[in-house]
Amino acid sequence: EIVLTQSPGVLSLSPGESATLSCRASQTVTNNFLAWYQQKPGQAPRLVIYGASSRAAGIPDRFSGSGSGTDFTLTLSRLEPEDFAVYYCQQYDRSPRTFGQGTKVQI
Amino acid sequence: QVQLQQWGAGLLKPSETLSLTCTVSGGFFSGYYWTWIRQSPGKGLEWIGEINSSGNTNYNPSLKSRVIMSIDTSKSQFSLNLTSVSAADTAVYYCARPRLAVRSPLAYWGQGTLVSVSS
Q: Do A102 and B44 count as a contact with CB atoms less than 8 A apart?
């Protein structure tokens, strides 16, 4: 299976700052079938980025994704208070469709 | 809009069978791989498996021996059974639908069901 390793585990930032989250895959993720999800306490995850760089419906443009192959990045520019959450990457290239362990973006 | 509503028993004893059902409203039911995900307390997300409207399934190898998924297209419902549960199966279980029919991330999620396993 494809193992996804996210770093850092925790990111402490202030509103207005930018965040860079990394997701590294143990094998090539073909066709950039890599997604990012945002999860807040007590809520289901919410799709943020798919296809490594496409924003999901309703996601503001301060969220951007990049990368290919085995290295992917989620960038959050100008952090808003509602952006503080846990972010997970997921590959949907191969079964089992694995998730990274998450990066917590906290104030 | 697409909505997923899930339900099932929230408290089980070791060795019992976990049973959850998810009902879908809005959008098409056929053509998608309907998915189950779980999240242990304070932990990350684990993909359990998926089933399509033809009954084809893909299971996580780590759970494959205990997982049975089924689907009822007439009711727009799909279900998860996990046999011989233990405390390690305590988690919030989510049902979900991908954004598109083929090779697509999960865009629609149920509200989650906390299942606790304790003697």
A: yes
